[in-house]
Design goal:
The complex is a heterodimer of chains A (520) and B (372). Chain A has 520 residues and is an alpha/beta fold. Chain A has helices spanning 40-45, 70-82, 105-112, 114-117, 129-146, 158-175, 193-200, 219-225, 248-257, 278-281, 350-386, 411-417, 421-427, 459-478, 480-484, 498-501, 510-516, and strands at 150-152, 183-187, 204-208, 230-236, 261-266, 285-289, 306-310, 322-325, 330-333, 406-409, 448-451. Chain A is built from 17 helices and 11 strands. Chain B is α/β, with parallel strands linked by helices. In chain B, strand 15 (354-361) and strand 16 form a beta hairpin. The longest helix of chain B has 17 residues, at 214-230. The termini of chain B are far apart. Chain B is 33% helix and 24% strand. Chains A and B meet through strand 3, helix 8 and helix 12 of A and helix 6, helix 12, strand 15 and strand 16 of B. Strand 3 of chain A pairs parallel with strand 16 of chain B.
Chain lengths: 520, 372
């Protein structure tokens, strides 16, 4: 029983319920909740009567909701949850660039506390002193980690923070009446949002390929991209490859030399927090993904928080409001005449800030540094083990250390067996691993996969994960049919990756499904 | 297992000398006289390397000499010549006859190296009577009977030798009319269907009749249009050769030649397919922009297939007035993502080399190294 201590492999089979879609479970008239009628006093005094709602706003017919009782609803979702794999039940080392660390459950408990769950951002700030203090204190810690002078927690995600930073850059140069700076410079291994965010804010984008030896663009190539039209550089470091550009200051200096600003994408700062700071390198703007590095469960598109850090000369352009403290009370400061405005309602995703606060408080300065060191150590161990697996190659910067993650390639195995990264992706489910992240698009590394063990996973977790990769490589070479027909131990088989290849075939709603299948 | 094996030795030779095809003896001779090399055999050898380990499982049926025999002998495979080339130089009739012989002798699969023209010849010879696997060696690869790459073809063949392909499916034989193509018109046509092993990931995508992502070309078109709109109306534009530029010009509703150099002003074509002399006559005293694209697979921007744009022409226009355009995917496929400049003028080559901006989309540029 249990895991085989020699091979580190375990017998696994995912639950299979053949569960229906909840609409198919609907029984006319069945109810989960029967709400009581409103109190007589409310009914007699309230204006909120149906006939007071203009007919143009009223539904012509009742919404098409499934009619299912509570017990069946509960069972339905419990079954679905058993049919999924994720960080809480599996070794989720595969999500490189996403920093899937363990987020302590006590944070969830606190978040559900009524003192947090039941407050509303429209309450008077005098009744929100607790959460405002948490904002203020979290900002203080992040300022210390980054060296930046001020933070905004308003952006709801990393890409959103990049867009916000680009908006600040735009406003900064407009304020200086410098209208010719219409271009930003980034690199192909920086997160794609570093091109996409500024493009959305109206900038032209100049991209840089990597140097094969360095793994990132050479300084000469970088300088050739800079000129009097450059508004800013947007760089990720370490980049997707996991390679850290230790000469990053030269790049920032080169940008400043042409009058451009320097923006640091530190969404994933897990390998360098507490070790190197954006301020000393000279960056003007940064962002941290609190939902990655600073511990919040994430995925499924949110919620998140792209904490945006700026130097003091850019503070006037930040989104409003900003949490301040006058020595007695915390308050929301809207007095930013040059602000780019709001980029999100209220002041960001408070639960994410709360989790980051708890995580930082529990670790302290030394703990944060220790977490980064562990993340790097884990990755060094993992890179060494994975690079020994048959069919795996690490491209670019051949002998350069990877920091907290690494992008690998199955290209050699693909050439030799015809089986590549998507085949492995399907097979790994049979061993109880949920998924791994291949790469951002386009694939500069062929047959890619990107692993990031973070500080949370133990040596034993890494060994098990690597043993599974080894086993799958061996299968590709010696028993390819089992890989080709995988997954075998999962509720679904032979799922085609339609979303990637044929987005027109994806059905997003029940209504669309009925229409598509011509079901009356 | 009996596997048919045919190389069209002339496949691909039209490409590097910008003839955009290799069908017909006249074109082949023209290509050879222009210095083209036969590469189909070396491409086929890359594929066969994938199955060296399974050599004992295969008995090849092939045609004599450079149509298969030479390569199989060199690589040490077991083979039998089922068709002897009659003339000194093989023709499409040899392909047809060899294929019919291979079919008649009950081969399991026919592997062939060629382009769309070769696939059409084979379709004419054997229709869908036996499974085939195409090695992409030609200039035009639109047909779905081809593997998506040489290594893809190798993997597919290796897999076939292992599992004997349970699933056989029909795949389109496509081609464009080369005669029309050389005149600047792209007419794609489905000629028929042949049977292929169902190895989706190794084979050319069924609908891949275009090598361009439309959104890439739209981006380049919008970027160029914006730049042109921002310049004085009397600016002269010299458009280089190749499909990217031709497609962008057609999006702009400007008449253009596919393989020639065209001159335009105010959205109107002044001269189609200009010679060097004509270019030099047009240029003096005018603001001019030169728009160049990148040759796929090789990375040349100057010195391949655009000799009209001579060093004198480039100097007259000015190196700073060059706009380079390319889809991102084309650059990703280049070795080390390096562009090449190879005009007869070494000093000019030096002047153009270094880091240059390549327009890859609307408001998008990529810094690329240009090497002389």
């Amino acid at each position: 029983m249990g895991r085989d201590n020699q091979t580190l492999l375990r017998k696994f089979h995912e639950a299979k319920w053949d569960e229906q879609i909840i609409y198919e479970m609907s029984v006319p008239g069945e109810r989960g909740i029967i709400p009581p009628n409103a109190d007589h006093n409310i009914l007699s005094e309230s204006d909120l009567k149906l006939e007071n709602i203009p007919s143009s706003l009223r539904r012509k017919e009742l919404p098409n909701l499934p009619e299912v009782g509570q017990m069946r609803v509960n069972r339905h979702y419990m079954r679905l949850s058993q049919e999924t794999l994720g960080v809480d039940v599996a070794i989720d080392i595969g999500e490189g660039t996403c920093t899937m660390k363990y987020s302590p459950k006590v944070q969830e408990r606190m978040m559900l506390n009524h003192k947090i769950a039941d407050i509303h951002p429209l309450q008077d700030p005098s009744t929100l002193q607790g959460i405002l203090k948490i904002y203020y204190e979290t900002e203080r810690y992040l300022k210390s980690i980054s060296g930046m002078d001020v933070f905004s927690f308003q952006p709801g995600a990393g890409s959103h923070a990049v867009f916000t930073n680009a908006s600040i850059v735009r406003k900064y140069f407009r304020a200086k009446e410098d209208y010719k700076r219409d271009t930003i410079v980034t690199t192909v291994f920086s997160h794609p949002s570093n091109a996409g965010g500024p493009a959305t804010a109206g900038f032209k984008v100049v991209d840089l390929m990597y140097d094969d030896e360095l793994g990132y663009p050479s300084l000469d190539a970088f300088k050739s991209a800079l000129n009097e039209r450059t508004a800013a550089i947007f760089l990720t470091n370490p980049e997707d490859t996991g390679i850290f550009n230790k000469n990053i200051k030269d790049y920032v200096d080169a940008a400043h030399a042409v009058g451009a600003l320097a923006v640091y994408d530190q969404a994933n700062v897990n390998g360098i927090m507490g070790i190197t700071r954006a301020r000393e390198v000279g960056f003007d703007l940064i962002h941290y993904n609190l939902h990655k590095t600073f511990s919040s469960p994430h995925g499924g598109m949110g919620p998140g928080c792209g904490a945006l850090g700026a130097r003091d000369y850019l503070k006037p352009f930040l989104p409003v409001p900003h949490v301040e403290y006058d020595g007695e009370k915390y308050y929301l400061d809207y007095d930013y005449p040059d602000s780019i405005g709001k980029v999100r309602s209220f002041y960001g995703n408070a639960p994410i800030v709360l989790r980051a606060y708890m995580w930082l408080r529990s670790l302290g300065p030394e703990g944060v540094r220790e977490a980064a060191k562990c993340a790097v150590l884990n990755n060094q161990y993992m890179v060494n083990k994975v690079s020994d697996i048959r069919g795996v190659t690490i491209y670019f910067g051949k002998d350069r250390k990877r920091i907290e993650q690494c992008r690998y390639s199955w290209e050699q195995m693909y050439k030799e067996t015809g089986l590549g990264t998507e085949d492995i992706l399907k097979r790994m489910v049979d061993y109880g691993l949920p998924h791994y992240w291949m790469s951002h698009h386009p694939y500069y590394v062929p047959e890619p996969f990107t692993l990031e063990p973070t500080e949370s996973f133990s040596k034993d977790d890494i060994d098990e994960f690597v043993a599974i990769l080894e086993k799958m490589s061996d299968e590709c070479y010696n028993n390819p049919e089992i890989v080709r027909s995988a997954p075998h131990n999962a509720p679904c088989h032979g799922v085609k990756n339609y979303y990637e290849t044929e987005p027109t075939k994806v059905i997003f709603s029940w209504k669309q499904y009925l229409k598509d299948r011509k079901i009356e | 297992m009996k596997i048919g094996f045919i190389i069209n030795p002339f496949a691909g030779i039209g490409g590097k000398v910008a003839l955009k095809g290799s069908d017909g003896e006249q074109i082949q001779e023209l290509a050879l006289s222009l210095g083209a090399l036969k590469e189909a055999s070396s491409k086929a050898s890359i594929v066969l390397e994938h199955v060296l380990d399974y050599a004992e499982r295969v008995h090849f049926l092939t045609a004599s000499g450079e149509m298969g025999e030479d390569l199989l002998r060199e690589m040490g495979f077991d083979y039998e010549v089922v068709h002897h080339i009659a003339k000194e130089k093989s023709s499409y009739l040899d392909t047809v006859t060899a294929a019919q012989e291979i079919l008649g002798r009950g081969a399991d699969l026919l592997v062939f190296a060629g382009g769309d023209g070769t696939a059409r010849d084979l379709y004419g010879a054997i229709r869908a009577s036996m499974p085939v696997l195409g090695i992409p060696a030609g200039v035009k690869i639109h047909s779905a009977v081809y593997a998506n790459s040489l290594s893809g073809a190798g993997s597919a063949l290796a897999q076939y030798l292992n599992d004997n392909a349970q699933d056989i499916v029909l795949a389109d034989v496509m081609d464009i009319d080369e005669e029309m193509f050389r005149k600047g018109m792209v007419v794609a046509k489905r000629y028929g269907q042949m049977r292929i092993p169902k190895y989706e990931r190794f084979m050319q995508r069924p609908k891949a009749t275009s090598v361009y992502q439309p959104e890439d070309l739209y981006g380049i078109y919008h970027e160029l249009q914006e730049r042109i709109d921002a310049l004085p109306e009397n600016t002269l534009y010299v458009w280089g050769t190749g499909g990217t530029i031709h497609h962008v010009m057609s999006l702009m509703n400007i008449e253009s030649s596919l393989l020639g150099v065209d001159i335009t002003e105010r959205g109107q074509t002044l001269l189609l397919d200009a010679t060097e002399r004509q270019l030099l006559d047009f240029l003096p005293k005018r603001n001019t922009k030169l728009i160049l694209s990148v040759i796929g697979g090789q990375g040349h921007i100057l010195g391949r297939g655009n000799a009209q744009i001579s060093p004198d022409v480039i100097r007259a226009i000015g190196v700073d007035n060059i706009w380079i355009v390319s889809t991102m995917s084309k650059i990703m496929d280049l070795d080390k993502h390096i562009l090449h400049v190879d005009t007869p003028d070494k000093d000019l080559n030096r002047l153009i080399s270094g880091y240059r901006r390549v327009i890859t989309g609307w408001q998008k540029e990529l810094i690329c190294q240009v090497v002389d």
